[in-house]
Amino acid sequence: MEFVNYFGAVFEPVAFMLLLGGTIGGLILGATPGLSPTMAVALLIPFTFHLTPVQGLILLGAAYTATVAGGAVSAILLKIPGAPANIATALDGFEMAKKGEGARALQMSFLASGVGGIVGVMLLIFLTPVLAQWALAFGPSHLFWLAILGVTVIGSLDTKSTIKGLLSGALGIWLSTIGYDDIQGAQRFVFHDALTGGINIIAALIGLFAIPQVLEMLTQGRTPRKISVIEVRPNKVLHSVREMFSNLKPLGLGTVFGSIIGLIPGVGGQIAGLVAYDQSKKWSSRPEKYGTGHPEGVVAAESANNAMVGPSLVPLLTLAIPGSPTAAVLLGGLLIHGIFPGPMLFTNYPDVAWTFINSMLIGQILMVLFGLYVASLAARVARIPTPILASAVLILAVFGSYSVQQSMGDVYVMLALGVGMYFLERFGFSAAPLVLGLILGPIAENNFLQGSMIADATVGRTHYFLSGTLNLVLIGLVIASVAFSFWSTMGPRARRARTAEVQT
Amino acid sequence: MSQMSTAKRLQHLAPNVIVTALAAIVTWISFTQEPAGAYLFPRLISVFMLVLALWSLARAVLGISRVGTGLSAETALNLAPGVALILIYVFWAAKTLGFYTASTAAFLLLFTIYDPTPITSVRGWIKRIVISAAFMAVIYALFTLLLKVQMPRGLYL
Quick one: which of A82, A173, A225, B72 is 20 to 30 A from A109 by CA? Predict the structure, then answer.
């Protein structure tokens, strides 16, 4: 119960103001279609440079929580999910809004998000120290395989093509080797002056997540997005509270599935929301009502996508393996403040770790309070024209990446990666494994070299890296994640390809 | 119909060719450059990358994999002015004209190019100028006044 000692730090004036600002700002950003939680957190990192590590993480954590929940606003009122995590919410939420129950759907979504989110953070609180203790036994070979596992899991699960996902991950690891190598100090793959110091992770994150979204917005050209404006009639909050607690089954299922899925690296909110929605439909006494504006669908989806947030940080804080793209961006935020997560985090920086986790718990409560009352305001934000959004995100991306090291080189790298990623994404490559490769590359390389030195002096490399129970378990997981991905995509994909062939 | 299919196949081939070429260059550098110790890990990764790239290329050549939406002519035409503007803004204007001048111009121009309001509309121009100026004022307050970041000055601010 060590975490209780650090609640006070969350309520210090600056920290609490940042928590409030991050929550309200996150709700607004989340409600804005085209701004994903990952991109919102990446764009916020430059603003944390002048804050203490704790304050910076409080801001980023609050934004992460609130953007996921805020995405429900545009999903419900416009049928445009604010983030992939809100896709399932749109199925019933928009139908409720069409019937004039927009406010009811919004209130239920924020309440369900709050319940799911609080349970998720509680899991983070109780699981993280246990796992961190266990992870203390990890040596260089285990950490090497763990880093590879992180990349392969995301590479094989978060993409439409397993091969292209793994290729994106390998590309990311290679990008991480650009610049000086840590052991010999030799320059590697420096094709341009801007790459001399390697690729700055924050500039890369901003470029890879913000620029493709800017370009995607521009693909609409001068044709405005067609938005059906739905009137939000007032609804009593207490009525929604009572109603939500009468939907305990979808709430429980959403929370449980969201929490479990959150723990699996790379699976993310989109799958959490859809799986919980599907399971809730299967367990429901009225499954035929799903998709017609049934509150159970909103409750299941929203409780799941917020329940996923806390557990998705467990592998990040204990093993330095980000479980989701947004967690990868948070890792960037930690590294920029000189804090390296992993087994020693709770020993070396207990104040930072626990205050951050506690702030996420308080953030969930604030998110519900503000979500209930600013939902109708956020609906207006959701209608911001895309040319304004695209221009604003572009300028923020340029200023943000420049301010990292006050270097134009970072801006060039940010833009080159962003534009390149946009075109690659249109052909089935994915940014998430590339980012994870970029972040986990140095961890993999350092542990590989360290392990190699130990191996050369003792049992030899093959024996050191390929034997021992833990190594074999991790290698097995790497193979299983890739094999599962091939198995689950090849069948349907082959069928789709055959159908496409017939159509053309 | 078959021409369109060939065009699509060629389009899906292009990114795979680029990535394979990159993987080949990286692998060649990893095996030829000194000091060899510094390239130990890149060697491991580049071989893995090259194998995957060749595999992906082979699938694209055989037309097995067409993942992703590709790039239609309409999308490319819509994107072209925006991409050109962004490249000019970052690679030339930001340093030559100064960060704030170039950014204000980039915001206004990008907004204007993609704004559905007719270009001849006076109200449209007033709206665009006011929003651009207000946004840049917020950026100035955030980065220069609050975060104290020194932005490059060019001919103008």
Answer: A225
